Amino acid sequence: MRVLLFLGLGVTFVISTPWLVTAEEWVSGKIWEEPPLVTPGECGSPPSDAIILFDGKDLSQWEGGENWKIENGYAVAQKNGITTKEQFGDCQLHLEFATPEVIEGSGQGRGNSGVYLMGRYEVQILDSYENKTYFDGQCGAIYKQHPPLVNASRKPGEWQSYDIIFTGPRFDEAGNLLKPAYVTVIHNGVVIQNHFEIEGSTAWHVPPKYEAHGDKGPIHLQFHGNPVKFRNIWIREIRELTYRQKAENEGDKKGEEKAENAGTH
Ligand code: MG
To answer: DSSP letters of 117-146?
Structure first.
């Protein structure tokens, strides 16, 4: 009985630990650069490699920023939209906004603003708390292309957050589209756009259309007649890691590390 039990445990151990029965570990042959170290922020504060676009004090990094009112650590949209002086490609963008606490207007006229990626692709900002409008124009919509998957809006006047992960489109030298843009949007911690394939620019009056442009473009915040507030705006450019393919005759320089990690997955 004791022998059988021991045998049983032994078989279970071998089955649940496949590295014991694998002859040799599979390796991709890709020798990756080491991922850079980044110190993460806390509760929405910027990580160490972020570019701060607005820290509550001034809008000097934005064209037109001199026309917005700055008070109590936030900026209030008025007179015109604002556009970053610097241009960005693939990126992670964090910003916080609040639509006016005092409700005025309805539908598209209530708390309207927007975040334009590369100056062309709008993630809508709107007061969509108990405020109906066309679904692909409500808060978090890729304007006129795709509604948010859910409505995660907070009440008017409350601070809300967007975390946007954007991959820009790619064009060939003749201006043909090679790859469309993609966007993921997290609104107040909730995924509302999941790697959505952007269909082109997001105008009110014409269908989406791609027009060739460079690998980088500005971030634009829309002024649509409503005093929407903004704070804590930062951006990180996203760069793919590089690697080289290991040569056939190349030794295993990572032997120690490999031995150390044997059997982990
Ligand atoms: Mg808008």
So the answer is: ETTTEEEEE---SS----GGGSTT-BTTTB
Q: In whole angstroms, what is the distance from residue 113 CA to residue 158 CA?
A: 15
Q: For residue 113, give the amino acid letter.
A: S
pTM for the whole structure? 0.85
The structural domains of the chain, with segments of one domain joined by +, span 51-237
For ligand 1, the distance from its centroid to the CA atom of residue 112, given in whole angstroms, is 5
Up-side HSE of residue 82: CA atoms within 13 Å toward CB? 24
Distance 200 CA to ligand 1 centre (A): 16
Environment of ion ligand 1 (residues, CB < 5 A): 112, 114, 222
pLDDT at residue 32, as a whole number: 93
Predicted confidence at residue 259, as pLDDT, reads 46
Length of the chain counted residue by residue:
265
Q: List, for the chain, all residue ranges whose pLDDT scores fall below the cut of 70.
A: 1-22, 252-265
Q: Which of 142, 102, 136, 140 lies closest to 226, judged by CA?
A: 102
CA–CA gap between residue 99 and residue 156 (Å, rounded): 5
Q: What is the whole-number distance in angstroms between the Cα of residue 49 and the centre of ligand 1?
A: 29
Q: What pLDDT shows up at residue 251? A: 73
CA angle 226, 228, 234 (to 5 degrees): 145
- pLDDT of 254: 52
Fold of 51-237: Jelly Rolls (2.60.120)
